[in-house]
Amino acid sequence: MGEARPLQITNDEKYRLAVHECGHTAVAHFLPNADPLYKVTIIPRGQALGGTHQLPEKERYTMDEAYLKERLAVMLGGRVMEQEFLGTVSSGADGDIQQATKMARAMVARWGMDETLGPVDLRQDGGNPFVGLDMAQQREFSDQTAHEVDEAVKRILRNAEEHAREVVRKNRKAIEKLVDRLIEEETLGREEIETCLGTGAHGDDSSTDSASKSATRSKAANRGKTGRGGQKNGRGKSTSNKSRGKKEAAE
Fold it and tell me: Which positions are catalytic?
């Protein structure tokens, strides 16, 4: 994510940032199909104001529907937290929304994960490398189908948002402790997160060789240093909050 940088932000902004990142963190912590947490921080690095980092414990070559839906919930967890704790949302969710929309559209238009539309390739363009030519190409499906794709994308995103909201409301007291601790410490590792939130959906993986898991996380950390937020695909994903004068926020 780049070097840490000094940044003067107000106490209100710092609180909102902590709330946002704790939303991503809490949703990831309590959902069983989400990748395990590595750390959460509100120390600005590069363009990011903060970030929630997850490290897969195994290589993933395909993504099933359950995993994708919970990943969307994690992406939208920051925005949901702002709504629940502050009553408003901010530009900090810009990158989160962008990434979530892109993923939801792929689920519908590329991977056949909408029951109504089914297994049909409904991509809108062929990615023509010449500027302007994409717009000149004709779609291979009707305006009505395009509308149905849009509605399916919105439906998936709304469901993911409500899934995140359920997690936040159910665990609000524990999340409040996490917010306070993050404001105080600015960076929390997995153990500190579990101290605040308790045992998550991943539980006590004592049946898995701890040394092997530690080595996997270390290797993933070296390969997957991110830089919301957004969430980085593959190893070492992160959800980061970027300043919205330039680009996005929190992830």
Answer: 21
Pairing of strands 37-41, 187-189: antiparallel
Number of neighbouring beta carbons within 10 Å of residue 200:
20
Q: Structure pTM?
A: 0.77
- Written as six digits, the tokens of 109 are 């238009």
In angstroms, rounded to a whole number, what is the distance separating the alpha carbons of residues 17 and 125?
37
**Token pair of 140 as six digits:** 């291979």
Distance CA 122, CA 140 (A): 8
Alpha-helix runs per DSSP H in the chain? 11-30, 65-86, 94-109, 133-136, 143-170, 172-185, 190-197, 210-223
Tell me the C-alpha distance between 188 and 216, whole Å.
Answer: 20
Residue with the two structure tokens 């909102």: 16
Token pair recorded at residue 174: 């524990």
Mind listing the pLDDT tens digit for each residue in 122-170?
A: 987 655 555 555 555 566 788 899 999 999 999 999 999 999 999 999 9
Q: Which domains does the chain have, with CATH numbers?
A: 11-242 (1.20.58.760)
Q: Report the candidate in 8, 21, 2 with the shortest Cα–Cα distance to residue 249.
A: 21
Tell me the C-alpha distance between 77 and 71, whole Å. Answer: 10
